[in-house]
């Protein structure tokens, strides 16, 4: 079995966001929940416009993070409406936009500090 390169959870969470953004994910956030929850240290939230895009985003995160970490569990990939990827210290939620609005995890975790995603990975507000 190959050994994973060990990098801190914060850096892996940012990588998850970058891999999601690589597939044109919308409204990507990395939240530090380490001080307010014991379920994980970081949450990554992202949206896609369709089941195919949500699945592509999840695949990008999984394949991109492979050299650094493996998921403990992934749920919802088949349907592509809300995919949850559990990396232990990082939980990635990838939603279709209307599902994200309905469950509103953004508001649920609004007390959590949001990490800055490096500009090089952002695409939504760049000039075309």
From TrEMBL:
Gene3D superfamilies: Beta Polymerase, domain 2. GO terms for cellular component: cytoplasm. Keywords: Cytoplasm, Repressor, Translation regulation. Its main location: cytoplasm. It comes from the Bacteria. It holds the Pfam family RsfS. GO terms for molecular function: ribosomal large subunit binding. GO terms for biological process: cytosolic ribosome assembly; negative regulation of ribosome biogenesis; negative regulation of translation. It is found in: Cytoplasm. Functions as a ribosomal silencing factor. Interacts with ribosomal protein uL14 (rplN), blocking formation of intersubunit bridge B8. Prevents association of the 30S and 50S ribosomal subunits and the formation of functional ribosomes, thus repressing translation. Interacts with ribosomal protein uL14 (rplN). Belongs to the Iojap/RsfS family. This is Ribosomal silencing factor RsfS. It comes from Geomonas limicola. The gene is rsfS.
